[in-house]
């Protein structure tokens, strides 16, 4: 946010908006349990791919279904399991409904996860504002408004 403020992409209103969202996150307003398998493992966080978008999911040439895919180019870290699913949605994964259904079958997501998707998208949106500029700024501000 500071980089975007310093280069003039964000003015005082945008900075205030994002600070309000950050304050609510810090206070735990949006906290949710990890899915069952993460909780059962005793881990405090899920291992995330970290850069999960359609370009980092590969399939055999003759496949049209999501089964049998492989994830590539990880930037792994620990966080909330909802984050990778939010990343898939942010950048338009074509089999998202199938992935979510399979995920919920194996390790159900916490109630209200759909309402938190944008929240999990804010950090990558901010990064894209810094790296790629203007096209992402409007989307980032629109998402932040939902959580302020």
Tag the structure with descriptive keywords.
148 residues; 7 helices; mainly alpha; 52% helix; two-stranded antiparallel ribbon; globular; two-stranded antiparallel sheet
Protein architecture, described:
- This protein is mainly alpha-helical and 148 residues long.
- It has helices at 2-6, 12-26, 36-41, 82-90, 96-106, 113-132, 137-147; strands at residues 46-48, 57-58, 70-71, 77-79.
- The strands form two sheets. A two-stranded antiparallel ribbon has the order 1-4. A two-stranded antiparallel ribbon has the order 2-3.
Rg (C-alpha, Å): 17 Å
Provide the structure class: mainly alpha
Fraction in beta strands: 5-15%
Low-confidence stretches: none
SSE string, helices as H and strands as E: HHHEEEEHHHH
Strand order of the largest sheet: 1-4
- Give average pLDDT, whole number: 92
Which SSEs are present, and which pair or pack?
Blueprint: H1 2-6, H2 12-26, H3 36-41, E1 46-48, E2 57-58, E3 70-71, E4 77-79, H4 82-90, H5 96-106, H6 113-132, H7 137-147
Helix pairs in contact: 2-7, 4-6, 6-7
Structure summarized in a few sentences:
This protein is mainly alpha-helical and 148 residues long. The protein contains seven helices and four strands.
């Amino acid at each position: 946010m500071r980089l975007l403020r310093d280069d003039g992409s964000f003015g005082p209103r945008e900075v205030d908006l994002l600070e309000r969202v950050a304050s609510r996150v810090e206070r735990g307003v949006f906290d949710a349990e990890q899915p069952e398998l993460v909780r059962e493992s005793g881990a405090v966080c899920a291992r995330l791919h970290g850069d999960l978008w359609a370009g980092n999911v590969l399939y055999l040439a003759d496949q049209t279904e999501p089964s049998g895919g492989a994830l590539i180019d990880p930037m792994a870290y620990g966080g909330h399991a909802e984050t990778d699913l939010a990343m898939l949605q942010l950048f338009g994964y074509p089999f998202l409904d199938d992935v979510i259904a399979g995920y919920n079958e194996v390790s159900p997501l916490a109630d209200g996860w759909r309402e938190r998707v944008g929240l999990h998208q804010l950090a990558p949106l901010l990064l894209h504002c810094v790296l790629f500029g203007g096209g992402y700024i409007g989307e980032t501000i629109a998402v932040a408004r939902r959580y302020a």
